[in-house]
Design brief:
Layout (H helix, E strand, L loop, with lengths): L1 H16 L14 E3 L5 E3 H4 L4 E2 L23 E3 H16 L2 E7 L4 H12 L7 H4 L25 E8 L4 E2 L19 E2 L4 E2 L7 H16 L2 E4 L2 E7 L7 E3 L7
Parallel strand pairs: 1-12, 3-5
Antiparallel strand pairs: 2-4, 5-6, 6-7, 6-11, 8-9, 10-11
Helix pairs in contact: 3-6
Length: about 250
Amino acid sequence: MYMMKRTYLWLFAALFTGLTVLVSCDNQAEVSPTDDTSAFVNLTDVVPDAILEIRYYGTYNFVGTRIDGYDEPTAILTKIAADSLKAVSDDVIKQGYRLKIYDAYRPQCAVDHFMRWGADVNDTLMKPYFYPMLDKKVLFPMEYICEKSGHTRGSTIDLTLFDMTTEKEVDMGGTFDWFGHESHPDFSANPETLEYIESDSLTLAQFNNRMILRNAMLRHGFKPFRTEWWHFTLKDEPFPDTYFTFHVKKL
């Protein structure tokens, strides 16, 4: 309840005073930067079945340009997170799916790029595709853009499922990086009890698809994020007090 009240206060400030409100989505303490890659691996070296669609290397993302720090369209994770994701991959393959990766480790310079973009309220190039119902100035207070990200700690992953029978992405009822309540794991349903409330925006089948991904991730040591169905962090992440600065490219 406190978080909800605090968010509404920030939203009020942004809407009615024009202030830019900077937040840390993970509510983490001050952490130390480093460019040490020794604990990291190329994700596909550990999970060769993973499909990569690294959105921030291309232009189809909420900014509309390649994001700073993405030198190659590859995915990097800490070794322990990659090993856990391999267990997830093996799990969903038995169910007829493969993992499709949108983002993994993200350097701090990429987060800084997001911050600069967010502060420029006139840059709305990709608004029709990712936040058509929102004014851009609320993206900070609603925590869609943050000055610190769990991705920079190296054990957070953004992903979906790929159906090996249909050879298409599984229908999750919304796209990666959609800024809206429809992206919340508890939108129109309770992930804990699996209780579904009929909705025009999310069908029961789409909710069930989200649960296939969520449950596989939870079974193998990941925890979900409260506003994004595609976002998971290793519970026992090895660097909870560190953020990394090296660029995304094959190690």
